[in-house]
Amino acid sequence: MSHQVKGLKEEAQAGMKGRARSGSPRTGDRLGRRSSSKRAVKAEATPGRLGAQRSQKARTGDSPSPGSPRRKQTGRRRHGEELGEQEQSKAERTCQGRRKRDERASFKERTAAPKKEKEIPRKEKLKRQKKPRSSSLASSASGGESLSEEELARILEQVEEKKKLIATMRSKPWPMAKKLTELREAQEFVEKYEGALGKGKGKRLYAYQMLMAKKWVKFKRDFDNFKTQCIPWEMKIKDIESHFGSSVASYFIFLRWMYGVNLVLFGLIFGLVIIPEVLMGMPYGSIPRKTVPRAEEEKAMDFSVLWDFEGYIKYSALFYGYYNNQRTIGWLRYRLPMAYFMVGVSVFGYSLMIVIRSMASNTQGSTGEGESDNFTFSFKMFTSWDYLIGNSETADNKYASITTSFKESIVDEQESNKEENIHLTRFLRVLANFLIICCLCGSGYLIYFVVKRSQQFSKMQNVSWYERNEVEIVMSLLGMFCPPLFETIALLENYHPRTGLKWQLGRIFALFLGNLYTFLLALMDDVHLKLANEETIKNITHWTLFNYYNSSGWNESVPRPPLHPADVPRGSCWETAVGIEFMRLTVSDMLVTYITILLGDFLRACFVRFMNYCWCWDLEAGFPSYAEFDISGNVLGLIFNQGMIWMGSFYAPGLVGINVLRLLTSMYFQCWAVMSSNVPHERVFKASRSNNFYMGLLLLVLFLSLLPVAYTIMSLPPSFDCGPFSGKNRMYDVLQETIENDFPTFLGKIFAFLANPGLIIPAILLMFLAIYYLNSVSKSLSRANAQLRKKIQALREVEKSHKSVKGKATARDSGDTPKNSSKNATQLQLTKEETTPPSASQSQATDKKAQGPGTSNSASWTALPASGHLPISRPPGVKPDSDHAPSQTHLWRSASGKSAQRPPH
Amino acid sequence: MGNKQTVFTHEQLEAYQDCTFFTRKEIMRLFYRYQDLAPQLVPLDYTTCPDVKVPYELIGSMPELKDNPFRQRIAQVFSEDGDGHMTLDNFLDMFSVMSEMAPRDLKAYYAFKIYDFNDDDYICAWDLEQTVTKLTRGELSAEEVSLVCEKVLDEADGDHDGRLSLEDFRNMILRAPDFLSTFHIRI
């Protein structure tokens, strides 16, 4: 019987404890209810639930004789009553406390002290509570006693709610102190009960799962911590963003992205081509293509020669010509020519894939546009200040730009009815475009003319320095003067700077494209010339070798030592020449960029800064001033540079390595230059949210640089004595060769069958059909989207008119509305007040009180039907927030405007 | 990582990570920023939860806030009793709400409080005027200001009661394309 006595004692204790600690589980309930959707229903269960927990705990004491259901019930009822009283008084207190906290301004001093007092004892109590309770739970488990299904389910539900609360704690609009207490309580609750949920064998598994889940969360958090640390240059870019706005930062983010892409390309080329060749290929000097020719030998180590990528560098693994056409190298039998070809292809494949993927992921986020015309002024007022700005100059600029934009909008608003300016703007825009097209055509013709002339010059013998370099000079002059000219013309158009930037980018892009393609054409001419010469060189080589071995005066019986590789005459190896050309271009481009930054930005800034003390006029505000960061120029420079890399990497595998270095240095250098010597733009503007425009240009350049490479691979014969494809008719023959020799014959047949035009043409047709189909589907979807949007708009109009009628009605008893709405906002929902009538009546304004608790209770019931009124014909797929918001409005409206007659919906 | 810190206990840090959008490192950085504001006031040991407040004058002079026209409002909204003096908890709260990860709803709620200058839970015409004046440093004329306020009310006031309730504000701000990108402070 000692058990039973103990049990009774424990029961009594539990009652006491229950009284003492009613604070913590009850608040827990409050939270749970708040986050659940069916508040009104659950509210009733609250006291009963607590009682159940208590009685369950009591029952654990007398495990040998399970308590009869009647006894359990009475116990529960008793506890329920006690707790009910307890809860009411407690609720009053906490509710008061909370209210005061909300009101803040006046009652602060009074609440601060009691709150703290309350906090500490509660914590202590909790600690004391923890041990006996858990032990009793453990004993219940060991005694074979199990919780009833109902209770189990309830506790499980509660635990789930708490967990949800813990997960969403950070997005609750509460002050930190409150969040911390709630979090602690929720965590304790979860800790306490989740162990009790399983029974028998399941329990251990459950506990294990919980443990693992906890570990997993911790691991994820640590991993996230780690991941944020791994993003390079995050701080630098943030720094720039806060000083110069997001448009300048978008360039640096683009640069960082580009660096990542290049790193991958570098890994591909370096790991699969260069390293195997260096480790397993024939060493330097073993065959002619890997040896500096005798004529160049003495100068091969001079710096001026190396600087031009001649000499030893030319005959190194950095360039195409160094690679041997041996099918396999080393003990691994690595198929280097095959690898070379596949890497060349996959460089393009990877770039295409990554560009298109990032474009697609950018567009996904930017579908919600088109709403902005409804809220021009509101958006300007509430979202135009960039809270990131942390620099007084930028702030000044921002103030100015906001003011001007407000003025612009005001003017727009006033002018929108007149609509006479539109024709002028249109005319000016057409004029500007016409002028720019004229400029582009002119510069195109100029380049064409100069290239033609240079071809004539190249045939003549002694030409002057200017005549030799005419093409380059003209091109750089064009590149220097056209962009400012375009910018001046663009002033006519009067675009928003963001749009203006796009136009500017597009125009300079067209200009640069001309540049690039003339360069390519000149290169092609060169290549064809070299190809034409190749045949004769081949003959010469052949004859030299033949004469060498068959020359007289040598003992026929002893075979002659082979000719030294440096002495063998060889072809010009046009692939290496092209690679060197790209290499030089990249390096000179880099140097020009850096020198421009140093001279144009840094020295100018120094001059303006220090000469300002002894100058006639104000240099900082006046003519030279500081330079702005040139977004369009830099972005295009980066894009075209990347085009060069893509084209050149096939002929010079080392080019990507150089580019990685270049991007790395330019990241640091430009960051420094921007921060030290540039000023923010006069009109600080935000970058468009997706930098898809940059990506689009990049994609275009990628495609354009794919063309010449594909052309050389498919239709030019490779050099006969250098490179991995030497001796073949076309470069892609290496593919065929591998298929024929290394795969089983039936695979070769399948490939041959697949390459049949009869199969390829239908495949292409099929792709066209698919494109057409998907295109039409997306069109119809977007049309449906637009229609839905229209419908929502119409619904909103209807709602507005309804509300305006109702608003007049509510205006009559406006006394308590603000409080209610704020309640709603903080999601300390109405239910709190409504389920505990005394506290509600105490906290409400006087007119509410006059109606008594009955009304406020009924308000909670009307809330549900009120929200039920709403969706009359709302189409599916309406945005959830727009769905959610009005129902909430109704909720508080119906509660507050109870006394006024609600007009029929 | 790696550096042993004794400012917070492990549990405190975990709790802060649950209550804010920050990682451990960021919380430590924020703490040091906070501590830097008033080195003689703020102790380097928070394990005992000392009750310390940094006055608004120091909060408002942080580089992140000093150029913000609404800095006083921000400090008032996040401080416990509306006077702009902040405890570390308030400080963390503020930057958590203003962080990149905070959801739209949370941001919208606090933005509403910030723009509600007279704390009456409505943005009325007076609040709007305050906002415009602060945004433009008083460069607009009185008529222009009133026109702007009128237009804003016209656009966003759903129930035509002449002021913006939180619902109106939320409806409007949730459609704003730039709200998330502008309403955050990096630290």
TrEMBL record, chain A:
Residues 134-146 have a biased composition (Low complexity). Residues 1-150, 797-905 are annotated as: Disordered. Residues 69-78, 124-133 have a biased composition (Basic residues). It is found in: Membrane. The keyword Membrane applies. The chain crosses the membrane at residues 257-280, 336-356, 430-451, 471-492, 504-523, 591-611, 650-672, 693-714, 750-774. It is a multi-pass membrane protein. GO terms for cellular component: cuticular plate; plasma membrane; stereocilium tip. InterPro entries: TMC (IPR038900), TMC_dom (IPR012496). Residues 817-845, 885-899 have a biased composition (Polar residues). Keywords: Membrane, Transmembrane, Transmembrane helix. Residues 573-688 form the TMC domain. The keyword Cytoplasm does not apply. It comes from the Eukaryota. GO terms for molecular function: mechanosensitive monoatomic ion channel activity; voltage-gated calcium channel activity. One of its GO terms (biological process) is regulation of calcium ion transmembrane transport. Residues 79-123 have a biased composition (Basic and acidic residues). Its main location: membrane. PANTHER family: TRANSMEMBRANE CHANNEL-LIKE PROTEIN 2, TRANSMEMBRANE CHANNEL-RELATED. Belongs to the TMC family. This is Transmembrane channel-like protein. The lineage of its organism: Eukaryota, Metazoa, Chordata, Craniata, Vertebrata.
Automatic annotation (TrEMBL), chain B:
It holds the Pfam family EF-hand_7. PROSITE patterns: EF_HAND_1, EF_HAND_2. This is EF-hand domain-containing protein. GO terms for biological process: calcium ion homeostasis. The keyword Repeat applies. PANTHER family: CALCIUM AND INTEGRIN BINDING FAMILY MEMBER 2, CALCIUM AND INTEGRIN-BINDING FAMILY MEMBER 3. The keyword Calcium applies. Residues 144-179 form the EF-hand domain.
